[in-house]
Amino acid sequence: MVEEVEVKEEDVVSLGEEQQPDTSFQQQQHTRQHQRTILQNNYHNLSVISLPSRVTKLAFFEPPYQRQRWGDTQILPHINWGDLFFDLFYVAAAYNLSYVLLYSPNAEGFLYLLGLFGPILLEWFQRTFFDARFAYGKYISVGEMYRVVLYYVLTLIISSLFDGKLLGDDPFHHLFQVFHLCFLATAVVHIRPVETMCNP
Amino acid sequence: MFGYSIGVLFIALCNIYRSIEIMFKVVGDEAAAKTSERKYLVGYILQFICYLASSCVTGVALFQNNEFDGLYTTTDRQDGQRNMMSISNVCSRILSTQQRDLVYDSTFKTDTPIILCLIGWILSVCILLLRSFFFEEKDGGHKKYNVPMNIEYILHRFGELTMLLLGESVLSVLIVETTRTLEYHVTFYAGIVSLILMQYMHFKYQPHSADEHAFRRSVKCGAIFYVFCIIHAFSLIGVGTAYKMMLQEYSQNEKYRIRRLISLVSRKLAGGTGGVEYSSAELRQRVANMFCISMATSWLCLEGMYICHYGTNKYLSFVRCKWGKCIDFIRLCLIVIIATISQYVTEPERVTLIGLALLCVAVATNEIGDYLWNKEFNKQNENKHWQDETNESGVEESDLSGKKTKHDAEYCI
């Protein structure tokens, strides 16, 4: 699943010196150093972020990476087009929500505003908190939807030819992202004035 | 409502999957990731249950009663069929979408689904607050059970959220039918300038570096800041809608209606069912109330966020100083005044002008306050009377290696 990463000796040394492990951590020291090296080598990927990139490995699924550890120097990811694209859905949501209040400037309208905006606003925070802690091997660009769908179709076709080795840069999470946004779009498009919303 | 419930239900399902994936597949500190995701998972599952209940309620009502199509009255259904067959009627359908297509049978009216959605997300926030206040380990123990956040990233993203919500307000002011009256132009420009000042004021209240952020201060500060962000987002929607309603009031007058046909086609993006049933005076009162409450809530949230970022001790020590009392008294008065404008004035142009004037005073006060704040605390730092804020809050502790770092007070929720 995870691509074997060439371990640089200096990385391991510097990581080892950076944080003296607690006794409870010593048992897993070797594994952790290996993981840290993977993290270190993926910092570049995490900071480049979201621009269409070339396929460099054969993997259908890549595990998420922890962005940083306690005490690490935090690297601010570059402008993330995927996040901006995600935000566009909230512009539409906010615009639709304004009509909820516009047509019902009363307690009922306020109740519907809370009930309709709350779940999707919370989703924004939850996703942001997730992205602030974890990242996928190569960050997902939501703007590449067309390419993603093509990838997925291609991977399904080619998988049968290559005996389980699938082509693509983590198409699983790309597709997951597409579905996620489709569900968000479904919620946003159904935000309507109270008169409509109070009917099933 | 069924479509909305299904949408949020699947979003919650995606979140549950993502948490489970992190628990079993993450590369990093697996133990901490697993524990922290388990805590998040509780919130996601609660949301999922509430949204599932909402979907079931709406789904049962929808499919039991006339199986969707039956929700339209006979006349409407016939109209709809004719619309589909005739290109010319498609245009008329666009013009009166809401009247034709979305007239449901009122016997199925229920508020239960929206209440379930409301319970779902409020429960999730309450659980987070409870966890942050009562169940998180102190003295650095939380680091074993939590994955650190990238605070710089959070800082940027929260700024973007505010920008997009303010963007909606700008959209509300700009995408409204125009009129040639003086009152319209006064309201319009007062609204635009107010939004600019609100944007300026928001970023004035936010820290410029991750080290000053509430998430890096303490568990409680981070959780309270999160709640303030949610309330602030709602208040910004309220401000935008209030401006839109004020400006639309002028366009209700037939004499000044311009580009009506174009706007009917292009601007009713969200749809509606024919407007509000209030008298003009009552509607004005309600809009003024909405404006005042939203604006006051927004300011209060900004103050709350500021306290979360810098800590109550530092804030109170500023209040205790000579000029601090004055500045905070003015701020408090401004919030009280803006919250009560609607009790004295309801004309849109007057309400927005007073709002603008108060915003100008608030910005000026903040500038002076900022200058005095820096003067006060720089002086204290020079005299070594002011210790590092992390020490003061009592959250600084050694990391796992026993070595102190600048991220020691860092917390994630």
What does this structure look like?
The complex is a heterodimer of chains A (200) and B (413). By secondary structure, chain A is mostly helical. Chain A folds into two domains: 1-48; 52-67 and 77-197, no CATH class. Chain A is built from eight helices and two strands. Chain A has helices at 9-18, 23-26, 29-48, 81-103, 107-133, 145-161, 171-189, 194-197; strands at 65-66, 134-135. The model of chain A is unreliable at 1-21, 43-52, 139-144 and 158-168 (pLDDT under 50). Chain B is built from 16 helices and no strands. Chain B starts with a helix and ends in a 20-residue tail after the last helix. Chain B is flat. In chain B, helix 3 (74-85) crosses helix 4, helix 7 packs parallel to helix 10 and helix 14 runs antiparallel to helix 15 (348-382). Chain B is an all-alpha fold and 413 residues long. Classes of the chains: A mainly alpha (200), B mainly alpha (413). Chains A and B meet through helix 3, strand 1, helix 4, helix 5 and helix 7 of A and helix 1, helix 2, helix 6, helix 7 and helix 10 of B.
